[in-house]
Amino acid sequence: MTSIQDIPLYEEVVRGFDQLTQTIAKSESADLRKTRLHAFENFRESGFPSIRNEDWKYTNLTRFLKDEYALSLPGSIAAPATVANAAKLADSARIADFDCYTIVLVNGAWDKQLGSDLPKGVEILPIAEAKQDPALAASFSQDGKDRFFAALNTALFSDGLFIRVKAGALPEKPLHIIHTYTAGTNLMVQPRHLWVAGERAELSVVESLVADGGEAHIWANSRTEIILHRDAKVDHVVIQSAPAGTRLVNHTTVRQKKQSLYNNYTFTLPGADLVRNDLQAKLEEDHTETHLYGLYLAAGQQLVDNHTLVDHQKPNCFSNELYKGVLLEQSTGVFNGKVYVHQDAQKTNAFQQNNNLVIGKKATIDSKPELEIFADDVKCSHGSTVGQFSEDALFYLRARGIGEAAARALLINAFAFDVTQKIKHAPVEQHVNRLISLHIPVTHA
Fold first, then answer.
1. How far apart are CA 133 and CA 124, in angstroms?
2. Residue 396 is assigned to a structural domain of this protein
3. Most buried residue, 30, 218, 411, 412, by CB count within 10 Å?
């Protein structure tokens, strides 16, 4: 465990929790207050993670935890300059020719003036309102065994987005959620989101994350819980394009019921100092299906860490996972994917693959695909590859009059294509490909 005395943020967290409990004492249920307290005690016990913790073995946070941060807590009013900057950030994240509903969040809080109309059959509320509804409060009062940043979010979250798609509802257009983060001083934000897709309902969401802290550092420690009821379908695209000075830790937990389908596409682009994505899919009933696709393009001294868990709990379920990474300059990539098959999960089909292209001379990748199987009638496989540019492919392109820089760019695009072509909305695919092209350098030293 990282020494508490060496982390100024720890004392700020303690003060922030005391302030938060005083502020919300009358507005939250007793169960939720109990959950917060339990999560805070878990955090105090675990502290911030270090490389001594197995799940953080290759992700050293020491240099990020040396900075001091203020906490974003209820009642804080955004300055006019912050709101204006958020509007500009939101505009930069909009996708050309993408017909969608739009929601804009500023430091985790929904700004209704920056969005558009909303879909019928879909209930959308700020978390601050949803958690006060007795019918919804139980969703936020689950007493888990979370540690580190997950426990910290549960203890300190104050706002976010609640989305519930009614049974049988089929929204006409996708929902584009734009997360903007902006601040004049170092800031840590704890957004909490809950999405619920009712029986036979469908939901298509594109999340874009953009930030601008100027000289300040912004740390977003977010948590999203997604529940798919029977026969529900959720398509989920995540585009992370925050600049240097941003630190992102994202926890996403997906709970799937019978015959539900969840598709996730996560794209991480150069910029943010730290990106840690924890994605867990829990296949809780039979005949569920899960697809996880990821592409990370890292540069500079960026650290990008993708941790996934596909938890097969019941029989006759299918999961497929493909993550690809391109490591440039002095960047570090981490992939840790586990497929866990319970004893009752017979007839499981599970596939996992991680492929990496290490281009920078000082770039590194730590890849650890895992299978843990307790059933005997399954079909599971996993694999990992690490390589550089194919000299034969480069020679082939150069021999046809294509310059070296253009040839390398073509090979990177071809490498990424297996993931980008999975996106179901053409404007979103074009948008992601454009972002990738902006970050393909002429040299890769």
1. 13
2. no
3. 218
Report the alpha-carbon distance of residue 129 to residue 162 in Å, rounded: 9
Does residue 408 lie in a domain region?
A: no
Burial level of 281, CB count in 10 A (0-12/13-18/19+)? buried
* Domains identified in the chain, total number: 1
In a domain, 162, yes or no: yes
Count the alpha carbons within 13 Å of 417 in the hemisphere toward its beta carbon: 7
User: Is residue 27 a contact partner of residue 136, using CB atoms and an 8 Å limit?
Assistant: no
Q: Which residue has the tokens 């017979």?
A: 346
Asked, for residue 406, whether it belongs to a domain, the answer is no
CA 128 to chain centre: 21
End-to-end C-alpha distance for the chain, whole angstroms: 35
Whether 432 and 420 have beta carbons less than 8 Å apart is answered as yes
Q: Look up the domain containing 70 and give its range.
A: 4-388
Q: In the numeric block, which tokens belong to residue 165? A: 């798609």
Question: What mean pLDDT comes out for the span 348-377?
Answer: 95
